[in-house]
Amino acid sequence: MSTSNRSVVLSRSEVDYLASADFLLPNLLECLQHAVQGQSDTAVALKLSSAVAEEFRDVFTDQLAKVGFDKAYEPTEEGKLLEDLIDRFCFAIVCDENRSSETL
Q: What is the pLDDT of residue 76?
């Protein structure tokens, strides 16, 4: 797995959601708070290592399992947001690796 840093851009509403979430681990919350400093009011770019991006994905996936679906197993609004975040943080760490393995 690559150790280079990648960027994930979050909207202000996504940042606010994550900043107020009680499920983020302290090191991930610190990473988010550090990224917010000095960035625009509309978007924040998180520069993450593969390992940290994977930690975010793990936490999002756990939260999705808890609150992401209604009784009919349809995604809730929070579930849709978490699915999007999972996809975007996954892109940050594995898409290039998946593409290179597909060309082998």
A: 97
Q: Which pair of structure tokens corresponds to residue 38?
A: 């000095």
Question: Measured at the alpha carbon of residue 45, what is the angle toward residues 66 and 49, in degrees to the nearest 5?
Answer: 75
Structure tokens that stand for 8 in this block: 């994930």
The closest of 35, 39, 40, 4 to 19, measured between CA atoms, is 35
State the number of CA atoms in the 13 A half-sphere of 72 facing the CB: 2
- How high is the pLDDT of residue 42? 84
- Its pTM stands at 0.81
When pLDDT is cut at 50, 70 and 90, the band that residue 1 belongs to is very low
CB atoms within 10 A of CB 55: 18
Cβ atoms 68, 83 nearer than 8 A: yes
CA pair distance 27, 49, nearest whole angstrom = 13
Distance from C-alpha of 83 to C-alpha of 74, rounded to nearest angstrom: 12
The three-class DSSP label of residue 98 is helix
